[in-house]
Inverse folding.
């Protein structure tokens, strides 16, 4: 799916918690540093929905997010990717649900949360979940949380980068997946 053929919905601007997709088409949803419950209801066939969330927590920032990808119609897809980078004493609580109704056969749903911890005082709690009532679907979910790779930092330092430059490069690479998919230009942490 390319951005040129998709409708972009920025939740930071739309300020909606429930989005209903009742017409076939390609849709992209983006949100950044938002707390709340976000429901994505797929009520039509041939909906292709990409959902991207990006979080950067610093200081005492706290984010609580719950997402629901609710497939009601058959032959549709949803793909959720939420990435976060957390510094200082930031807190991030994520609950994700993919629900596939009995009539939503041939649905494809993906849900992934990836977090990068940059302080031992960061608190992250991530729980993706699946509820599948149909029997002809493809669904996956997962969550990863970890620190920067010390071997990668060492390698970059051995190539002449300062430690702070090496860390910034790795952080940019981590969030770069979403930035590239959305074609966001000049986004700085």
């Amino acid at each position: 799916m390319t951005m040129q053929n998709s409708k972009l919905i920025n939740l930071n601007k739309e300020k909606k918690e429930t989005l209903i997709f009742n017409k076939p088409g390609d849709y992209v949803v983006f949100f950044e540093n938002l707390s709340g419950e976000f429901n994505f209801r797929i009520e039509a066939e041939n909906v292709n929905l990409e959902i991207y969330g990006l979080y950067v927590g610093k200081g005492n920032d706290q984010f609580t997010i719950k997402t629901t990808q609710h497939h009601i119609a058959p032959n549709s897809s949803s793909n959720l990717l939420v990435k976060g980078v957390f510094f200082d004493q930031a807190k991030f609580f994520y609950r994700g649900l993919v629900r596939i109704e009995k009539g939503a056969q041939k649905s494809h749903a993906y849900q992934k949360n990836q977090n990068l911890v940059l302080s031992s005082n960061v608190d992250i709690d991530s729980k993706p979940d699946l509820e599948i009532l149909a029997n002809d679907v493809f669904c996956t979910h997962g969550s990863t949380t970890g620190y920067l790779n010390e071997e990668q930092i060492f390698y970059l330092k051995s190539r002449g980068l300062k430690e702070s430059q090496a860390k910034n490069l790795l952080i940019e690479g981590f969030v770069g997946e979403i930035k590239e998919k959305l074609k966001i230009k000049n986004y700085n942490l």
In short: The first strand starts at residue 7 and ends at 10. The chain is about 15% helix and 50% strand. Confidence is low (pLDDT under 50) at residues 184-189. Residues 160 and 166 are 9 Å apart (CA to CA).
